[in-house]
């Protein structure tokens, strides 16, 4: 699934790869309704020990899925991919776009966080599901979505931990009752940890043709969120 794909890109590919465009419309379902990650048009491989990628012309991605620090640093990282994954988790579970205004809040993550603070996080689940879901799984997905949406990049879980949480092999992540304030990261010159777009020898576009897409159909792509009528919380 999507979590396995991200873990592979971040940790097991020959070079670390950052997807840079995690969103529901880039998640497809195969014939068995397993989630698959697609659209590697913005993905970049990081050379050697570099941990981030930046382009001189600015931040790439889709609003609502871009981590807040990217607008300040201009850098995409594995942590910013995790932020996008969290936005997708909340979108699928709630049936609402990340920028949806709800309950007096300006975006989905803030509304879900308020429900978590009030001890009624399951009230954020897509109302069209009725009671047709497993409460423990739903709460795990919502809390993980919030953990991945932490404004502070270093507080977000790594993909290995995300896999374990989704599989239920480790406890649900701790999520503070109040959403932490975003702290602007220190801004310095692009150093050895950053690959930039003008250093063509250090970056490699990752095309979808490098991956086996046979049997995939974009049935999960909808004008609203990327879920189907056969709803599943499985994003592993």
Written overview of the protein:
28% of the residues lie in helices and 11% in strands. Helix 1 packs antiparallel against helix 6, helix 3 (78-94) runs antiparallel to helix 5 (135-148) and helix 4 (108-117) crosses helix 5 (135-148). The strands form 3 sheets. The chain has a 3-stranded antiparallel β-sheet. The chain contains 6 helices and 9 strands. The protein has 236 residues and is of the alpha+beta class. It has one domain: Transferase(Phosphotransferase), domain 1 (Orthogonal Bundle). The longest helix has 17 residues, at 78-94. The termini are close together. The protein has helices spanning 2-12, 70-73, 78-94, 108-117, 135-148, 159-167, and strands at residues 16-18, 27-30, 35-37, 44-46, 52-54, 75-77, 194-196, 203-205, 216-217.
- How many beta-strand runs? 9
* CA-atom Rg in angstroms: 17 Å
What is the succession of H and E elements? HEEEEEHEHHHHEEE
Biggest sheet strand line-up: 1-4-8
Can you describe this structure in just a few lines?
InterPro entries: Kinase-like_dom_sf, L-type_Lectin-RKs, Prot_kinase_dom, Ser/Thr_kinase_AS. This protein has six helices and nine strands, in the order αβββββαβααααβββ. It is of the alpha+beta class.
